[in-house]
What does this fold into?
Amino acid sequence: MTRWRARRSAGRAVILLLLGLLVSWGLGEALVWPTPSAVPAAAAPAVDVRLRSTDGLALAATYRPGRTRAAPAVLLLHGNGASRAAMAATAQVLAEQGYATLAIDFRGHGESQSARHSFGLYESRDAEAGLRWLRAHQRGAKVAVIGLSLGGAAALLGANGPLPADALVVEAVYPDIRHAIRNRIAAFTTIGPASLLEPLLSLQSRPRLGVWPSQLSPLNAARRYPGPVLVIGGGADRYTPPDETRSLYAAFPGPKRLWYMAGRVHAGVGDISEAAYRAQLLAFLAATLGTP
It folds into this structure.
């Protein structure tokens, strides 16, 4: 009887383990599933354009001309699950200052070609294509990149290192994928369950993306970007807490600034309607790109 009970308990444990793996795989699938969405057509003088990622995927984008044909420019990279529409207000403010802008839809987002999300790994190819297009279109003028969350990760995680932009603004960017997943689970549970569940999700990067979780680390990549950088975090961000933003800031070796948006959660970082944020951003761009 005792042996039978032991076998039954072992059988239940195996079933629970298999169910847990199945559920975690399903959650992982939800995290990488494409999120297409319609984007309002550009209003003149802005124009909608199409370009190709460095690996051939079709990307949707919106270009706003600067004050001159060779004005300095800004590449705008949106967050996870969003589209270039989320950067439209920022693009408008920058255009009013005379900067040209290009806002792209990452693969699997907005109106770009469908593809699974990869937390910045393959989106970096889209960001690289956007930078090349914008630099060529502006006749070699200086180009900065503003990357929000996923966008900041994509600016850093390229196969050849961070984007070779003249200046970089990274907003609410996770330090590595394990912290990102754990923090998001902990925001809905507690740190205990989050620490137990995180490996079941983060280790899926190997079968899904072909890389180990350690390779999804904007913090490590930041050490390879020598240019000027503005690191922005949310003072109340639970997905990327202030201490993690500080660690990312510390990793950049070149000229840098760190600023927190007081009281802002993850979704509120990069809100161009906030006067203090707008002042910080424009001052940084004027110092690094010049005033058009």
In short: The first helix runs from residue 2 to 32.
